[in-house]
Task: inverse folding
């Protein structure tokens, strides 16, 4: 942090750390945000930053929504977070969580709290949800942090990892893996992958194909599923059984032959509808496994091969490539190179809206740009200087909301766009655009 030396670092005590950090311009006073609960609020999560290091806000809520018991929801989120830490690191940060399920909101309590707190008036006047979003909530993070993305790139460089594009992948016959699943089995797989980042933007058709290529694996107690240091090629879902995670420290030899220290366990149960997963990184990179997984009981796994996953998602990758051509049409990006457009398209993610939903609203501060995907249809309404309304229809590959990229942080949308039918969009956040443009400028410096 300091321009005068490599300090204060991150492992310092709070008392000394805050004092030093304040001298460098870091304020230790926490930022307090208030939001009034409404009947639409169903789940409240209080968690340490270790939980959100790899899991997004939406992923945490998706996991919690699977359960009726908040304690079980906490256990599931903590287990998923712990697993991701083991995939990317040889350590973990503090992983602590409180989950509250809101059964209902009784507005009669307002009469008890109207007044002042430390001189600040507190009232229970009705507030518009959109106003709350604009003024008191941060944008939801939908991908890995920049720090973790850089860590992955470092890992790839360290082990000379590259996407596999050799003949074995080209000749891979995905149909050889096809096996039909019952609706119950599909539901179990769907719940297991629901909160995973790599499955969040797949289409319904791709999801059905993933169900078909999931390989059933019967395992016996003592069987090694994954061995630390070997290159992995499958992602696993625990359908039934107990599996432990063991890790060898760096440069440590497995003299005992047990895989090292036991650091975690996965418990799968059809009865309890609990289906943890591991090995997700293998779907993206041909990466050495960060830990060993050993079956403690007889059990059953579902396995997804990397080649099958890549072939199924080629359609999505093709759509991303097409999106680069669309991004090129936006004024702000016309000077971007192909590489920079590719970097920008990597931040695109899918959002879905139902018929009649308002996607953006004229006069509201904006944070995203949208591209209409096949099957989508929207109506755009813009108020002219003379007060007349100009209406237009937006279809496949049309984009809107790009005006917010030309102004500052308070840039507002110039039109209201409403979905005419159930529609899906590629969405690009303004903060991610700034990140790519910042990288572009640093390269030019």
Result:
């Amino acid at each position: 942090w300091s321009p005068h030396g490599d300090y204060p670092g991150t492992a310092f005590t709070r008392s000394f750390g805050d004092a030093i950090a304040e001298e460098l311009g870091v304020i230790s006073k926490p930022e307090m945000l208030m939001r009034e609960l409404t009947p639409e609020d169903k789940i409240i999560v209080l968690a340490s930053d270790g939980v959100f290091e790899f899991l997004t806000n939406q992923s945490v809520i998706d996991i919690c929504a699977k359960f009726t018991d908040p304690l079980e929801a906490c256990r599931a989120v903590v287990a998923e977070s712990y697993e991701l830490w083991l995939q990317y690191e040889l350590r973990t940060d503090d992983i602590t969580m409180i989950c509250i399920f809101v059964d209902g909101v009784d507005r009669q309590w307002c009469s008890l709290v109207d007044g002042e707190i430390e001189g600040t008036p507190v009232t229970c006047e009705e507030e518009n949800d959109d106003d709350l979003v604009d003024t008191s909530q941060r944008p939801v993070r939908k991908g890995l942090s920049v720090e973790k993305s850089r860590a992955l790139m470092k890992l790839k460089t360290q082990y000379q990892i590259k996407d596999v594009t050799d003949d074995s992948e080209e000749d891979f016959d995905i149909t050889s893996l096809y096996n039909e699943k019952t609706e119950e089995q599909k539901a179990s797989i769907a719940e297991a992958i629901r909160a995973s980042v790599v499955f969040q933007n797949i289409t319904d058709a791709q999801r059905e194909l993933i169900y078909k290529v999931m390989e059933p694996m019967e395992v016996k107690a003592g069987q090694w599923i994954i061995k630390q240091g070997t290159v992995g090629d499958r992602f696993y879902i625990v359908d039934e059984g107990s599996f432990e995670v063991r890790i060898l420290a760096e440069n440590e030899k497995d003299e005992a032959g047990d895989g090292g220290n036991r650091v975690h366990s996965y418990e799968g149960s059809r009865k309890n509808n609990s289906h943890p997963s591991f090995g997700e990184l293998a779907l993206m990179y041909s990466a050495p496994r960060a830990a060993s997984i050993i079956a403690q009981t007889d059990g059953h796994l579902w396995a997804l091969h990397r080649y099958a996953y890549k072939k199924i998602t080629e359609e999505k990758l093709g759509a991303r490539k097409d999106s680069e051509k669309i991004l090129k049409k936006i004024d702000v990006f016309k000077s971007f190179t192909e590489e920079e457009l590719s970097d920008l398209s990597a931040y695109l993610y899918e959002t879905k809206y139902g018929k009649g939903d308002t996607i953006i609203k004229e006069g509201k501060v904006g944070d995203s740009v949208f591209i209409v995907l096949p099957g989508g249809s929207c109506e755009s309404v813009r108020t002219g200087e003379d007060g007349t309304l100009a209406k237009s229809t937006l279809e496949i590959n049309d984009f809107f909301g790009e005006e917010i990229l030309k102004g500052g942080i308070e840039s507002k949308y110039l039109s209201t766009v409403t979905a005419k039918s159930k529609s899906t969009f590629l969405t690009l956040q303004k903060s991610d655009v700034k990140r790519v443009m910042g990288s572009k400028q640093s390269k030019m410096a």
The longest strand covers residues 234-247.
